[in-house]
Design brief:
Number of domains: 1
Radius of gyration: 12 Å
Shape: globular
CATH class: Alpha Beta
Structural class: alpha+beta
CATH superfamily: RimP-like superfamily, N-terminal
Helix content: 25-40%
CATH topology: GMP Synthetase, Chain A, domain 3
Number of strands: 3
Order of helices and strands: HEEHE
CATH architecture: 2-Layer Sandwich
Length: 82
């Protein structure tokens, strides 16, 4: 299973409904921890509240995917990096 492609397919439309642009999805291991990093954008500046709102959209959706490893969901903006 390609986790990144699966997540993109699952969340893209829901994010776009709320005005977000899905820039990228990365499933990576850093310092012994797995991260599911979702990079978002929008017309205008992405702020912390936007990341929180996007996380509330994304979290229940990715819970439907069987990801065998424990991971940290990291939603961040394209402009500020992660």
């Amino acid at each position: 299973m390609d986790i990144e492609k699966e997540v993109k397919k699952l969340i893209k439309d829901k994010l776009e409904e709320k005005g977000f642009i899905l820039d990228d999805v990365l499933y990576i291991k850093e310092d012994g921890n797995y991260y599911l990093r979702i990079i978002i954008d929008k017309n205008g500046i992405v702020d912390v509240e936007d990341c929180v709102e996007a996380t509330k959209i994304i979290d229940p959706l990715v819970d439907k995917i069987d990801i065998k490893d424990s991971y940290i969901l990291d939603v961040c903006s394209k402009e500020k990096g992660c």
